[in-house]
Amino acid sequence: MVVRVAKRADIPETLEHQMLMNNAVSAGLSWIPLAGDVFLQIWKANSRNSALLRAHLEERGRERLAGGAGGMQTISGSTPASTGTVRGSARGAPKAPPTAVGVGRMPREESAV
Fold it and tell me: What angle do CA 78, 81, 86 make, to 5 degrees?
């Protein structure tokens, strides 16, 4: 699962191969009854792959920031600061960040007691 997300992040082939090897080791040894289950609890291929991806993305981000470009560009190639609005916002108004209050929940009805 993590490998699929990593491919969209344009990772180097060596990192992709390392992630695929983690999954192959996990799949290969999971066939051993009981010992395979114990191994899977210790190996945790997706956790290893997530750590590899995070380290790569952090390093790439540091390189881009050190290069002076800042690494932030919209699809059109302009930086968000030069346009003054968030891409995709209605009528050019700045888009407000989502709030954590009530996200994904239905409001509770107050009981009339």
Answer: 80
Number of domains in the chain: 1
Q: Is 97 within the bounds of a domain? A: no
Does residue 90 form part of some domain? no
CA-CA distance, 110 to 9, in Å (whole number)? 46
**Amino acid letter, 97:** P
What type of residue is 26?
Answer: S
71 lies in some domain: no
Digits of tens for pLDDT over the chain (113 positions)? 789 989 898 899 999 999 999 999 999 999 999 999 999 999 999 999 999 999 999 999 999 999 865 555 544 454 555 444 444 445 555 555 555 444 445 555 555 55
pTM of the model: 0.56
Paired tokens of 23: 């999954």
Q: Does 12 map to a domain?
A: yes
